[in-house]
Give the backbone structure.
Amino acid sequence: MVDNNRWGNFFAHVILIVGVAIVVFPVYVAIIASTHPPGTFVRGVMPLLPGPNAWENYRTVITEGRSRAGTPPIGGMMWNSFIMAMAITIGKLSISIISAFAIVYFRFPGRIFFFWIIFMTLMLPVEVRIVPTFQVVADFGMLNSFAGLSIPLIASATATFLFRQFFMTVPEELMEAARVDGAGPMKFFKDILLPLSITNIAALFVIMFIYGWNQYLWPLLITTDPEYYTIVMGIQRMVTGGDSEPLWHLVMATVVLAALPPVLVILFMQRLFVKGLTETEK
Amino acid sequence: MQTKRMTFSSKWLPYALLAPQVIITLIFFIWPSYNALIQSVYRQGDAFGIRPPTFVWFQNFQALFRDDLYLNSLKTTFIFSVGTTILSMGVALLFAVMVNRMIRSRDSYTTFLVWPYAIAPAIAGVLWWFIFNPTLGIMPYILDMVGYDWNHRRNGNDAMIMVIIASAWRQISYNFLFFLAGLQSIPQSLIEAAAIDGASRMKRFWTIVFPLLSPITFFLMVVNIVYAMFDTFGVIHATTEGGPSQATTILVYKVYRDGFVNLNFGSSAAQSVILMGIVIVLTVIQFRYIERRVNY
């Protein structure tokens, strides 16, 4: 290590600690705000120390929601988000892994063509074709349904590419051996390829789950029925639902609950997360 | 494009395996995009079917480029993307360089810096919106002490600064991880050699480390611009809603508003087509770069 000077390191620690504090600050503020009674927000600056109302606030948002502003209880919205995130994640992983298998382990007319079709999904995010996609989903009668929330989002070029890349590194001998033993393609896929891909699947799972949970524009477009609101978009209804100032203590309790699942996923699966992120991102 | 040397043979199986992905892509990606292309050259009919849609060549596009609101939105998007990219990459690089010096505490700092990635853009927006709230937020309170009257409800610049901070905040984690990985792959011997030649720490950074990071910097720049342009809809929609007086109406938000709120499909479709062009260019740049990195 080049010059390990003590002041330099001290200085670096100071920068990092201040930096971490700034990065953490917004969430700290949210947690604090979610523990205060409504009265705190009527006067003066927002509080920086915990208040006495945590239990009460979280109970209210989870079980009652804000019926007047049209937001259902958080419990239901969290459940919807969970279903949507899981459906998107599992859908993406399963259709991508089989298409990568087809592209790598078979030679057939139209292979390159299909590869390019899959590639095109990268160039056409929902955000750039909002209205026509909505029309297609509406024509299929998929508005206000879990199918509508998840199926249009499960095509995935990134996951397909990642699996393809991984399959290319699997030794040829494995397949030759499997064929000598008389295993057909699906048996090879199930008994050899799938077990080998577990780490990749897990890493992608983390990334895709976060992606699915954090969907905002799509649920906003296709759900009008509060039964199907997801929590991330539900917050927007709470913030703008009404002309008055938002009920900050309840909004912040919701924010904390909405952020909790993906944050926990990252913290507990940090290694997989980093692997997934650095490898999927093309 | 390669396959394995030896492949399975089946007439129908590969098509069956590709079918789900390809069908979803065709129905929910390609078909709507095609519709957007078509709609962008038509003027929509009225709701009663009395006046059918008419083919108008590129009038929708011409109208857009004559529309001050659209031109303004282009400018807003540019400022917003550049601001977000520079802020989040700058901060992330600083953190990565500092963390890279650490040995024992490296993992703990990393843990503290990666989780904001998990927070949805819309939620990030609401968090900062609360902090900057003119009546009870902490930032306006502090700014007031130094004599600045913060109000993102009236002042467009304030609103822009707020959405840039909220969008950049969440992206720091991502950039940080890539910069850290980049820094760790720089051979220590190069830095030691420079140190022996008497180059100061600053000089070593700017003449050795930074140039070696440039492929990653370039890659992150593209990724961040894509993020700022397309993934930050939530930040805008949940907080400023494009205001005050269009100051934070980025292109994606405008497509949404013109299509869904103002129901102006022709114009919205034309805007979609322009956005598609932008994504395609950015994706091509990104993939070009990756091919080069492989040979690096």
Q: What stands out?
A: Chain B has a mean pLDDT of 86.
